[in-house]
Amino acid sequence: MSPNVPEEASVLLENIENPSALADFLAANLNLDTAEKQKLLEELDATKRLEKISVALANQLEVLELSRKIQGRVKESIDKSQREYFLQEELKAIQSELGKGDLRTEELKQIAKNIKKAKMPEKVEQEAMRELDRLNKIPPASPEYSVIRTYLDWVCELPWSIQT
């Protein structure tokens, strides 16, 4: 049944005894497009109509279950992200109270110093700074964070100013 059908409809549904009337009621209240409803209502045999309605109900039930699963995953993902954000903010507050400051900011400043100190070509340095900016925007728990961090460390360790 359509989510828009009032609960009183279930009472009415329980009191319908005529198969043809039951098929008509269900067809009218199913969440189908007009063409599909028309096909159902054009079927004169009540048994065949009820079989088609049964298939339509099974399809709608499958769609609703899939939708519920997707909504559950999305909610779980959002809850996890919110929890991570809250814990990161809490960690920042604790570090601030302890006088340690933001360790991540210090880490990013050190990487910027390493980039400047590496004496790499200008285009490479610009790319490294762009990656550092991306790193600043990504949560440390993200797998991408560690990939970018490793890349920047590797780029800074290359012997840019040494020629052989």
Description:
- The protein has 164 residues and is an all-alpha fold.
- It has helices at 8-15, 19-29, 34-42, 46-98, 103-117, 122-137, 143-157.
- Helix 2 (19-29) runs parallel beside helix 4 (46-98), helix 5 packs parallel to helix 7 (143-157) and helix 6 packs antiparallel against helix 7 (143-157).
- The chain is elongated and about 90 Å long.
- The protein starts with 7 loop residues before the first helix and ends in a 7-residue tail after the last helix.
- The mean pLDDT is 85.
- InterPro entries: Lon_Prtase, Lon_prtase_N, PUA-like_sf.
The secondary structure category is mainly alpha
Mean pLDDT: 85
Q: Calculate the terminal CA-CA distance, rounded to whole Å.
A: 77 Å
CATH topology of the largest domain: Methane Monooxygenase Hydroxylase, Chain G, domain 1
**Total count of domains:** 2
- Strands, count: 0
CATH class of the largest domain: Mainly Alpha
Write the layout of secondary structure elements.
Blueprint: H1 8-15, H2 19-29, H3 34-42, H4 46-98, H5 103-117, H6 122-137, H7 143-157
Quick overview:
With 164 residues, this protein is mainly alpha-helical. Helices cover 77% and strands 0% of the residues.
What key attributes describe this structure?
mainly alpha; Methane Monooxygenase Hydroxylase, Chain G, domain 1; 7 helices; 77% helix
